[in-house]
Specification:
single chain; alpha+beta; Rossmann fold; 8-stranded antiparallel beta sheet; 8-stranded mixed beta sheet; 38 strands; globular; protease; Prolyl endopeptidase; Peptidase_S9_cat
Length: 719
């Protein structure tokens, strides 16, 4: 996790999945609408003070905070008959689908082995040369390879001088992978998070560094963590996909752990971030539309955190620090897109925010990286990637257009904000990551040549604009083999997402290159609801605007066919997670446009899921989909496009779905019922018509025992 503020800009991956969300709620102060929680605060002598109400997000004066230990949470003694029946139905459906998969998958064994061999070959060819991400601290460089942590000197290229520190196997976590690494300022301690493939909750392990590293502490269920000083660590706890508590733990002679902050509003997700100059830790509480930030002074980490700006409905903001000023990335003001503003630390309220730089219309801010005298904005505009380099000294802004083939940024770690060079990688679905650097001293972009890196030369990239139902122009990115003839006869794979303000994933995948080499056309439809054209692009495709994303997708596919990119009988549609909403909706409304649909961990039962408030994400998801429980208009609108609700007897395309038993985000029961209902509709249609060619489509469900919600190891993803 080294990409500046990217986690915030993309919607924290922990609070969503391909994932995150936005709203049109009535105006008014949030605090006045939330039932405030009453708690008891003890003073130093232990006497009871007057009762205090805790606002939605509140700093807890930990020296006086008291709670009863051993309090039992009441549990249900009896399960209702309906629950037992539901569990029995679930088990029967699961068993039936597993038996069906075992029977069907055998037919594809030869083809599977051939494709697997080709993908493995490309994986070795294009990823073998990539170095592991490195974290540089002064003269030391830390890096991880295959679960092992190593240390070397910054300018020493001799592999014999690399020191092995420890491995995950040594720590007793042989089945886990390292998700995040944080090193304390004086390099006395290293905190790492370890996670298995079957869970989204990580374990934080703190190692005391030295000649022989020692495991100092293990903290379960941790999401984010940062060092305030060399022996004070702040972290957030994660439970049921939610982060609402911040703790501080010390590694001094008198070790202690204290609760620092708690968030009462279920729509908000809390994480910790360290400013690039290590002056402050920020406690960030974010919903899909609103933010609140508290500052922890790293010079005095025991001091109560200070509020930057109280949450204001509809205003998102994130903070960095430089020379006693806060640099604030915010949606405050018009238009409601990201702007870079600044304010003194001592008077950080919104009334003191001054504009530094505003983004152009329909520009997506992907990431921002702060340095001592500059900041770099990583931007997307109409499918093209740019760097905007802002000088805090001269106040000049330099805009650099990046190579046209590039579709994604990957920022490398820059722990030292005084560095003179910013390193990053560019990639696309069919281009392996290529390393670049921007030099502040030379004011130019440098392509980092790597020996033996294969160059992709036979793939053509085309950018198109499709006119949607309301005349809005929707971007499409198309890839195909330059040597392909008669493109209208070639198979086409269309990708869509369109939710939470998240861009379509366009990073390099070996299997995409296999398809290109086999003559396939790949198309990525950047429909509304996603974030490719900025925050307004998301707002235009969420809640009561969800159908716009569906109209966009239909317009994109129709334009591709009109321009000679394949035809319906050779077209497949692919989507993952929330992308399943638009893909499944199109399958109901316009099944004749596609021959097949491939879904991974799809969200296909929006209405029933959003009616179940006991699920961990339902409340915060209301800002993306609406609230069908309290708003009849929302319920009817969701029902109008929900894939599960709109299945009907008709000629459906073939469907292949991958789902995960351990998926905490998408209830497997909803996927099982969707498949059953879809099969029944296809059979009903086939029985009613005797027209030639109206065969029964393949509707296949593969339920994976390993992996969790679109996130699995290389081996599992290969399978």
């Amino acid at each position: 996790s080294c990409g500046g503020l990217r986690n915030h800009l993309q919607g924290l991956s922990c609070s969503v999945k391909y994932y995150s969300k936005n709203s049109h709620l009535q105006t008014g102060c949030l605090r006045s609408k939330i039932k405030q929680k009453t708690c008891h605060i003890l003073d130093c002598s232990g006497r009871m003070c007057t009762q205090m109400t805790v606002p939605p997000g509140s700093i807890l004066p930990w020296r006086f905070f008291s709670c009863k230990e051993g309090t039992k949470i009441p549990s249900k003694q009896n399960q209702s008959t309906s629950v037992v029946t539901s569990e029995l139905l679930y088990k029967n459906l699961l068993k039936s689908e597993q038996e069906n998969w075992n029977s069907i998958s055998a037919r594809y064994k030869v083809m599977t082995e051939r494709i697997k061999e080709k993908v493995e070959e490309l994986h070795k060819k294009y990823t073998f040369h990539l170095e592991s991400p490195k974290i540089r601290f002064g003269n030391n460089v830390y890096f991880e390879e295959n679960g092992c942590i190593f240390l070397s000197k910054a300018d020493d290229v001799d592999e014999e001088n690399v020191d092995f520190l420890f491995s995950t196997e040594d720590l007793g976590f042989s089945d886990a992978f390292i998700q995040r690494i944080r090193i304390s300022p004086a390099q006395r301690y290293m905190a790492i998070s370890l996670r298995s493939e079957n869970s989204e909750e990580a374990t934080c392990v703190i190692m005391k560094l030295g000649h022989c590293p020692v495991m100092e502490k293990v903290i379960p269920s941790v999401f984010s963590f940062e060092w305030a000083t060399d022996d004070v660590l702040y972290y957030t706890s994660q439970k049921n996909l939610k982060c609402q508590n911040v703790f501080m733990t010390t590694f001094t002679n008198q070790q202690l752990t204290k609760l620092v902050y708690t968030e009462q509003d279920a729509r908000f997700f809390v994480d910790i971030y360290c400013t690039k100059d290590r002056r402050f830790l920020t406690i960030n509480s974010n919903s899909k539309t609103t933010s609140e930030v508290w500052l922890v002074d790293c010079r005095d980490p025991f001091k109560l955190p200070a509020l930057v700006q109280a949450r204001t409905k509809g205003v998102i903001y994130h903070t960095e620090h430089r020379n006693d000023e806060l640099y604030i990335l915010t949606t405050y003001g018009q238009p409601a897109e990201y702007k870079l503003m600044k304010a003194p630390v001592a008077s950080s309220g919104m009334e003191n925010w001054q504009l530094v730089y505003a983004l152009e219309k329909q520009t997506k801010l992907v990431d921002l990286e702060m340095f001592s005298d500059h900041c770099i904005m990583f931007l997307k505009n109409t499918g093209h990637l740019y760097l905007n380099v802002i000088s805090f000294v001269s106040h000049a802004v330099q805009s650099i257009k990046l190579p046209t083939w590039a579709c994604e940024f990957e920022l490398e770690s820059h722990p030292e904000h005084t560095t003179s060079t910013c390193y990053f990688q560019l990639t696309s679905p069919v281009h392996p990551p290529q390393r670049f650097a921007y030099s502040f001293e030379e004011n130019n972009l440098i392509e980092q040549a790597v020996q033996e890196v294969p160059i992709i030369t036979n793939c053509h990239t085309t950018r198109l604009l499709a006119k949607s139902k309301d005349e809005t122009l929707v971007p499409i990115t198309v890839f195909h083999n330059m040597n392909s003839k008669e493109l209208h006869r070639k198979p086409l794979l269309v990708h869509v997402y369109g939710a939470y303000g998240i861009d379509l994933n366009m990073s390099f995948k070996e299997e995409k290159l296999v398809l290109i080499e086999a003559g396939w056309i790949l198309a990525y439809c950047h429909v509304r609801g996603g974030g490719e054209l900025g925050l307004s692009w998301h707002r235009d495709g969420c809640q009561q605007n969800k159908l716009k994303g569906l109209h966009d997708l239909k317009a994109c596919i129709m334009l591709l066919h009109e321009l000679g990119f394949s035809q319906p009988k050779y077209t497949a549609l692919a989507a993952a997670s929330a992308g399943g909403v638009l893909a499944g909706a199109l399958c109901n409304t316009d099944p004749e446009l596609i021959r097949a649909m491939v879904l991974q961990a799809p969200f296909v039962d929006v209405l029933n899921t959003m009616m179940k408030t006991h699920l961990p994400l339902t409340i915060e998801e209301q800002e993306e989909w609406g609230n069908p429980l309290t708003d009849e208009k929302h319920r009817k609108y969701i029902k109008s496009y929900c894939p599960y609700q709109n299945i009907k007897p008709q000629c459906y395309p073939s469907v292949f779905i991958t789902a995960y038993e351990n998926d905490q985000r998408i209830p497997l029961m909803g996927v099982l019922q969707y498949v059953q209902k879809l099969r029944k509709a296809a059979l009903d249609h086939a029985s009613r018509t005797s027209k030639k060619g109206n065969g029964i489509p393949n509707i296949i469900l593969d339920i994976q025992a390993q992996g969790s919600h679109c996130d699995s190891s290389w081996e599992d993803s290969l399978n």
